[in-house]
Automatic annotation (TrEMBL):
Cleavable signal peptide: none
Positions of the AFP-like domain: 291-346
Record-level Gene Ontology MF annotations: N-acylneuraminate-9-phosphate synthase activity
BP term (GO), one: carbohydrate biosynthetic process
Species assigned in the record: Hymenobacter mucosus
Protein name: N-acetylneuraminate synthase
Amino acid sequence: MQISLGSRLVGPNQPPLIIAELSGNHNQDLNRGLAIVDAMAAAGAHAIKLQTYTADTMTLPGVHRIEDPHSLWYGRELHDLYQEAHTPWEWHKPLFDRARAHGMLAFSSPFDETAVDFLETLDVPAYKIASFENTDWPLLRRVAATGKPVIMSTGASQLSEIAEAVQILREAGCKDLVLLKCTSTYPATPENTNLRTLPHFQQLFPDCLVGLSDHTMGVGAAVAAVALGACAVEKHVTLRRADGGVDSAFSLEPVEVAQLVTETERAWQSLGQVQYGVQRAEQNSRLYKRSLYVAQDIKAGDLFTKENLRVVRPGDGLPPRYYDQVLGKPARQDLKASTPLTWEAL
């Protein structure tokens, strides 16, 4: 199974799609946002993803302050946080245009129906549904009605909620769907990433592709996810974590994104198929398997012993499995040390 996202094929028989999530790491500077796009293209990422909302479409002023002391945003008022993190809508086109000029896919996560209407004017090739929006059925129906592929994160979700969201999307017209395993903590730890869910996910939703929305640091979880069947990996990105920003603490820098692209593709390439026996590429290496060699000069009639017979490389002599059978047998002819033992010599 594979689907088309714009000009790119995504599926088990394709290298994993690497999605660079810009989020709020532009730090309210369009030039910085464009520089991140340039850096991600140079690093080899296949897609740039934005988030399309305003503080007012996300929440109301004064309704919530983050009280979790473990949160990166502890003490922040939610409306203020979204005001800082949002990507101005007038920036979407220049950011998309820059990504497309590099040959990258460019799309976004809409957070309400007005965002979908806006993104349709920019002819995005796909839509992303964020974890916290996957229970917003009106939004799901509006996105599905576009007929474009949908990538949906599943963090902080009951399995029943995921199944309902898949059903809603399908009934509203979504044909191509990618489900991303996600842990909605920022950052996530390897211990709470639970990648063994991926093959089970694929069994539960066989008509969907699966992938990973990864909030861990580094690339280890993403590489392991590809080994377990992930066809797409989404990572938050920035120019430098030291520059700060709402998501900088768990975002990858360009050199790390380049590593992500390289290592996930290597993981995908290494999967191959079930294979036993000698591959064509290994044929010449069989020479270096061990075999029976004469270790001391032997006269005709001498018996083979542990002293004059050795199991060594290369493999020009009899296979080692005949060692015990040969011991105690007489030599038919004179043999020089370092001669491979053959049946004719017995």
